[in-house]
Amino acid sequence: MTRAKKKAVLLVAWLAMAACHRDLPRETRRQTEPVVRELRPAAGELVLPLRDGSVRFAVIGDSGRGDDPQREVAAQMVAWRERFAFSFVLMLGDNIYPPHDANDYLKKFEAPYRALLDAGVSFHAAIGNHDEPDEINYKGFNMDGRRYYTFREGEKSLKGLAGAGVRFFALDSRSFDRDQLAWLKKALDDSNTRWKIAFFHHPLYTSGRYQAGARSLRSAVEPILVDGDVDVVLSGHEHFYERIVPQHGIAYFISGGAGSLRRGDIRPSAARARGFDTDYHFLMIEVSGDELWFQAISRTGATIDAGVITRHAP
Questions:
Q1: pLDDT digit string (tens) for 79-138?
Q2: The domain spanning residue 104 has which CATH number?
Q3: β-pairing, 241-244 with 251-255?
Q4: How far apart are alpha carbons 234 and 172 in whole angstroms?
Q5: Cα–Cα distance, 251 to 197 (Å, whole number)
Q6: Can you state the angle between helices 178-190 and 211-227, rounded to 10 degrees?
Q7: In the beta sheet, which residues pair with residue 296?
Q8: Interatomic CA distance for residues 263 and 279, integer angstroms
Q9: Total tally of structural domains belonging to the chain
Q10: Which residues on adjacent β-strands are paired with residue 167?
Q11: Among candidates 313, 244, 258, 299, which has minimal Cα distance to 33?
Q12: Beta strand pairing call for 195-199 and 232-235
């Protein structure tokens, strides 16, 4: 690479980071900052620590095709759960793709994940742009008729609940309207959990094709997430896996490849920490104390990204 090209690349990277910082109001403040340590597991190795009482869950996005790739990713989820017994799954939208018919929930959700459902694993969904509006009433998605909602999972000990645990905030990114944003701000202010994790369909940062839309969305919602001390944001919509360099103290993940894939769709970006767009995948997460461990798994069972995020006061 020539000196001129190197200067151009550095300038683009600097401008990208500077633009990120201009997105937030001057008065926005955080209470914590993340430190990310990447891990390089051997083939087939589980790096999640399986600590006593930890919160363990899986993440899937853009899953609802009802075809072979979705079923193959589901089979990997079942296989890895034998070693990492996650108790629930977050769904990041586009849970049921069109064309829609009377057997949608059976073909595109219940059948692929039958082994997990029979084992008592619960699913908590956010709604995506390809989802039918009445999905919020489907019992299996635990939305209880709500476009946006919150629930808590606590760390457990032999004597019951211990520690502050994790509070999840499911949002409807199709429209960050005034009512939803007011609800989110209050819900974050009212929460005293150690970890706050938001999940919704459209990403706020991406190296894929929806970068313009991401900039528009984050201008509306990111100041509230930062001010509310959200630690992690999970999104789909882009049909690949991506982990973003932490932005304003938030760790962003895209996991949109549990049933959909756009090969080679990740573009060069200064914000990308890791990306994977050559096969389908799902994500596993374990939270314990001030640490959040993550491991992303491909359709073939290979680890495509892994690490640990530690919260600390800035």
A1: 999 999 999 999 999 999 999 999 999 999 999 999 999 999 999 999 999 999 999 999
A2: 3.60.21.10
A3: antiparallel
A4: 13
A5: 10
A6: 40
A7: 283, 305
A8: 7
A9: 1
A10: 152, 196
A11: 313
A12: parallel
Question: d(Cα 306, Cα 288) in Å, to the nearest integer?
Answer: 16
Residues 6+ apart with CB under 8 A from 27: none
φ, ψ for residue 76, nearest 5 deg: -65, -35
Strands 303-312, 291-298: parallel, antiparallel or unpaired by DSSP? antiparallel
Is 9 part of a structural domain of the chain?
Answer: no
Look up the domain containing 93 and give its range. 28-312
Distances in Å between the alpha carbon of 234 and those of 158, 253, 254?
30, 5, 6
**Residues 74 and 80 sit within 8 Å (Cβ to Cβ):** no
pTM for the predicted model, two decimal places: 0.90
17 located within any domain: no
Terminus-to-terminus CA distance in the chain, angstroms? 37
Whether the per-residue pLDDT at 162 is higher than 90: the answer is no
How open is the CA angle 200-191-166, to the nearest 5 degrees?
60
Q: How many CB atoms lie within 10 A of CB 272?
A: 18
Quick check: is 144 in a domain?
A: yes
Binning pLDDT at 50, 70 and 90, where does residue 242 land? very high
- The answer to whether residue 213 sits within a structural domain is yes
